[in-house]
Amino acid sequence: MTKPSMRIEKDTLGELEIPADVYYGIHTLRAAQNFPFSGQCIHRELIRAFALVKQACAATNAELGYLPAELARAIKTACTELAAGKLDKAILVDPFQGGAGTALNMNCNEIIANRSCELLGGKPGDVSLVHPLDHVNLHQSTNDVFPTALKLASLSLLIELEKHISHFQQQLQKKEIEFRDIVKVARTELTDAVPMTMGMTFAAFAEAISRDRWRIFKSRERIKKVNLGGTAIGTGIGAPRDYIFLVTGHLRDISGLPLSRAENMVDSTQNLDSFVEVSGMLKACAVNLMKISSDLRLLASGPDTGFGELSLPALQAGSSIMAGKINPVMPEAATQISLQVMGNDQTISLASSQGQLELNHLLPLIAYNILESITLLSGAVWGMAERCVGGITANKRRCLAHVEKSNALATVLVPALGYERVEQLVKDAGNSQNSLQEELVKQGIASREFIETLLSPKRLCKQGFTRDDPLMGG
Q1: CB 3.0 to 4.6 Å from 234: which of 138, 265, 380, 418, for a disulfide?
Q2: Is 456 a catalytic residue?
Q3: Which listed residue (38, 319, 353, 447) is catalytic?
Q4: Single pTM value for the model
Q5: CA-based angle 225:372:206, to the nearest 5?
Q6: pLDDT for res 443
Q7: Pure H helices in 86-232
Q8: What's the CATH code, domain 407-460?
């Protein structure tokens, strides 16, 4: 077997052999050897964001004359290829890494530099042609590039999440209209409460999700200010003043996102509470998603021996042994994702609190968790909208049967008959094994027609009762 051609690269620690044709370099290889922890990949959106940041820096340096035009063009082309996913095989570093993200920054620097060498007619590793630090990383630090790339990646993913949440809200609102005339029993503490409509149930779901839509929209405001140009600690040391004031504008133009330079880049470099705030809004969305998923599972439970008031779409066989069994798999998946997002929020909070003095060294952990949360939530919300809520049907007869069997009418009667009298009616119905409706007819208190009027969807949808309500004249 022919031994693959190798090249020798040097750093402050010594030399390493690297395959001659690969785009990564010695800094990447050392990081891959040091942090072989999770076997997971860097989030694709973060790689794309890094590439756009590097492209913006090269464009700024070229405009100001710090990079020759031909060299800048090659770097920008390599950045475009990395952003498009064409060079991802050379991303070797693990998401969980020491060094506040230097490993990922250097991995990107080396990929861009070595691909640029090829574009200029050279070979990977020729640092005299394109240097990963002196050219690709010119006027930058991991400490301004990484947080800027993370904010850029988060913004892109949040826009996608907001679209899915909007669609989810619309699907719930459609069911609100579709089920507006279906009377059901409301439950508090899992016991029968008062009559309501199924449409009201879905209206409440939709209202909760509408708040999530607003929160996600507002959360983008929290992370649009970046510290690019601040270099090591936010003071801009090692970078020209004109570069600092131009580079964010270039990134804004390249990304199409409303980014702006942080007014206090020292603060923006060391304090990551903006990610905590965004994560908190994601957690709120997860809480609502989990509540809705749980309610749908309850309302569809059985179906023969449970509530059985809703039917969820049958998506797959539910058991390898119980033939014909269908499980509520989409709400179950959404529940698991919700729990993961809640756990990620705790991790993000703790990691953000552990920054020390001028830098938070745990930024890679924050990046992993917040990008995972946004991505998972987008998937779960899409799944609930497209593969669950859109296909839900209501069992009107089952809902009505539950209303007739329950004492849900009791609370409706209290304003007219008084608490103690209604309480006695409930006891009488239990002793005679009648429904409350049957007991009312038996005792001559109300006719079946009048009871139907009290339980009409139109009346249940009103806010409270008025003096001319048929109940008060009954």
Answers
A1: 265
A2: no
A3: 319
A4: 0.93
A5: 85
A6: 81
A7: 102-119, 142-178, 198-222
A8: 1.10.40.30
